[in-house]
Every structure is written in C-alpha cells, then in structure tokens.
Write a structure and sequence with these properties.
Blueprint (H helix, E strand, L loop, with lengths): L1 H11 L4 E6 L6 H9 L13 H5 L10 E8 L14 E2 L8 H19 L5 E4 L7 H7 L4 E2 L5 E2 L7 E8 L18 H5 L17 H7 L6 H4 L5 E3 L3 H4 L26 H4 L4 H7 L9 H16 L5 H7 L5 H14 L2 H13 L3 H13 L1
Parallel strand pairs: 3-8
Antiparallel strand pairs: 1-2, 2-7, 4-7, 5-6
Helix pairs in contact: 1-4, 12-14, 13-14, 13-15, 14-16, 15-16
C-alpha cells in the first residue's frame, strides 16, 4: 500500500503531519484572486504571477492526481521576557533556514516514492513555486484556515511549515479539516496594526511580518509604533490563538533558537556592519531583508523602546551609509527625544543630501 508507506517514510524523515489531497483545481483560488484585487499583497507582485499554475496543480505537474501535503513543526520555547532594549524575532526564524532543510527531506521522500512507483512523475515544493499550499494542505486535512489566515491543526496549533509533493500517482485522499475558530476573535483583536480587515483576510500591507521582511522601502509612519520590538516577522496572532496552547516543541535540531537570536540586544544589532550581519544571519531566514532592511527594523524598535539609553547608538547610526537606515534612525531619535537627539538631528540635517532622509529629519525635529 504505497500511501501508508509514504506516510510512514515522511514521518521517519521528520515531517510531523502528512495528508493527501486530490490535485484538482483549487476552490480557494477565487478567494485568492479577490485578495490580490483588493491590493492586500502590497509589493509582493510575484504573488500575482502564474495564476493559472496556482489554481491548477496539473499546470505544474502534467497529469497530476495527488498532492502529498506535509507539515514540519518548528515551535521553540518562548524567549525570556525582553527588556525595552531587546528585539523579537519570529519563532520560525530563530534557527536554520527551513527551505534548505525541508528541501533535502523532500528529495529523500521523493526518491523513496520512486522506489515504490518507478513510473511516477512529480515535483516537490517548499515556497519554491506558485502553489496555493495552505489551500492544498487544508484540503488534505492538515488543518483549517484560521481567522488569522494560518493553517491550524486541532492537535498542535499553527507553528509548522508546509511543503508538498504533487504527483501523477493516484493515492487515497484525506478529508478536509472543519473550521474550529467558532466565535473566537482573539487574533483579530490582538493585531497591533489592524491587519485583518475581516476574519480570514489579511491585509499584508499592514501586517508586521510584511513590513519588516517583504517591504523593501520606508515603513509607513502610521504603522511604526504598532510594530513594537518585532525586528523580523511577528508571532502575535499565533501567540494569542488558544489552539497554540497545545503546541509541542520541535524536535528538529535545525530549528533550535541560535545563541543571540533569543531577544537579541537592539544596541548590538544597530552596530552591525555588513560583514557581521552576514556572519550572524548565515543560513538564517532573517537575512532576507538584508542589512539595510534589518537595521531599518532595529531603528524602529529602538524608537519604540522609550529608552533614552538608546540615543548614543542611534546618533552614531545617523551617519550610516544607507539612507533607508538613516531615515528610520531619525524617526527613532524623534520618538526618544532629548537634547542630544535634537543636536544630532540638526547636525545631520545640515549635511544630509537624500531628500527622503531630509524629510524624516525635519519631521523628527518638529516632534521635539
Ligand atoms: Fe481562530 Fe481564535 Fe485562533 Fe484567531 S485566535 S485563528 S479566531 S481560534
């Protein structure tokens, strides 16, 4: 029975849940098209590409019959309570990059499937192709699509990665999981940037994870305070979800929180040069926004810290070579205030050449 053997092998490889869905066109596609049309994808223009492939797995794998959907837990112990001068990194990003790790396991699983069915064709994916993976996983019974738009498994919450193998092998399928959100609205109420215009719909342009990872430019000023001390990603809508009380710690050693990424010191991070940034985030997801985006996030967190002790480090960073960082550092100094902050902002304004940074400096001075 190939399906039972495939499930067993997947579990041996560290996947914590396995479900199989028919590879028919996806009914969630209409919802997705509406979401794009409303502009909720922001600058993630790649999400609008290859719509035909996204809605029909057979466009990715000719003759596709089944999608083997896989989950891998990543939950880690909650960090110690941060002080105002410490930042927070989303749980999934405190260890090794999951793409590399999961891709290797998928390759092993696919090789195994070929030993059972040498004539099979298929492809495996982990964020590497236009696949509506949450919709496929929902259909495969791995969980329901929560009001916070995460896939939730009744037995263990939502702290898991998704991956899938689409194949022309016809396998017995699982039943979709029913919705268990009920009347709960905790995630909607807890979001500090009001990123849910309605239940089950995320306006990514207001989501902290979008702002501090995907957005490559200046963070809208009206959303900066809501970002608190999240410097890469955000877990708030998962932390408040009652189903995550059942989350179990991941056993995969690669996802273990790296030293220094559990509530890292914002004062250390704002001083990272290119070399030390690359060394700290080698093979780690938090390198995605690059140094310029990451230090922009750190500056916002320092501005939100309320800690005057951050002023000297920010004054130094006001001379950073990267305008995006200087602009957000100016904002942070405006938030913290004080004589030293004012002096530094005035001095920088006298020599600043970048128009956007000049505007940030002037606005910060106006605040003081
Ligand atoms: Fe659903 Fe409540 Fe969890 Fe939000 S917090 S996803 S409403 S159960």
């Amino acid at each position: 029975m190939p399906a039972a053997k495939i499930r067993a092998k997947a579990r041996d490889l560290g996947f914590t849940a396995v479900g199989i869905a028919p590879a028919d066109p996806l009914e969630g596609a209409q919802f997705y098209a509406r979401w794009l049309a409303l502009g909720y994808a922001g600058e993630m223009h790649y999400l609008a590409r290859h719509h035909d492939k996204r809605i029909a797995p057979a466009q990715l794998v000719p003759g596709a019959q089944s999608a083997i959907c896989l989950a891998m837990d990543y939950y880690q112990p909650e960090p110690t309570e941060p002080t105002p001068l410490h930042g927070q990194i989303a749980t999934y990003a405190r260890g090794d990059d999951y793409h590399d790790l999961i891709k290797k396991r998928l390759a092993e699983l696919w090789t195994y499937i070929l030993t059972l069915a040498p004539e099979a064709t298929g492809r495996y994916f982990v964020d590497t192709a236009p696949v509506l993976e949450r919709e496929l996983a929902r259909r495969a019974g791995l969980g329901w699509w929560g009001k916070n738009t995460c896939l939730i498994d009744k037995r263990k919450g939502s702290y898991f990665f998704l991956a899938e193998i689409i194949t022309d092998l016809k396998l017995p399928c699982d039943e979709p999981a029913p919705d268990h959100c009920g009347t709960c609205t905790r995630c909607l109420d807890a979001c500090p940037t009001d990123a849910f215009p309605e239940p089950y719909v995320l306006d990514a342009t207001r989501c902290i994870s979008y702002l501090n990872i995907e957005l490559k430019t200046s963070i809208p000023k009206d959303l900066r305070q809501g970002m608190g001390n999240w410097i890469f990603g955000c877990d708030i809508c998962q932390q408040v979800c009652p189903w995550n009380r059942k989350a179990e710690l991941a056993t995969e050693p690669g996802y273990k929180t790296r030293p220094g990424l559990d509530n890292p010191s914002l004062l250390d991070l704002i001083e990272l040069d290119r070399e030390s940034f690359n060394a700290l985030f080698r093979h780690n997801p938090a390198k995605r926004p690059k140094r310029r985006g990451f230090l922009r996030n750190v500056a916002v967190a320092l501005g939100n810290s309320g800690a005057k002790a951050a002023v000297p480090a920010l004054v130094k960073a006001l001379d950073d070579e990267e305008p995006l960082i200087r602009g957000h550092v100016a904002w942070a100094l405006g938030q913290l205030g004080g004589v030293n902050a004012r002096e530094a902002l005035e001095q920088r304004l006298a020599i600043e050449e970048d128009a956007e940074v000049k505007a940030e400096l002037a606005e910060a001075l106006d605040l003081l």
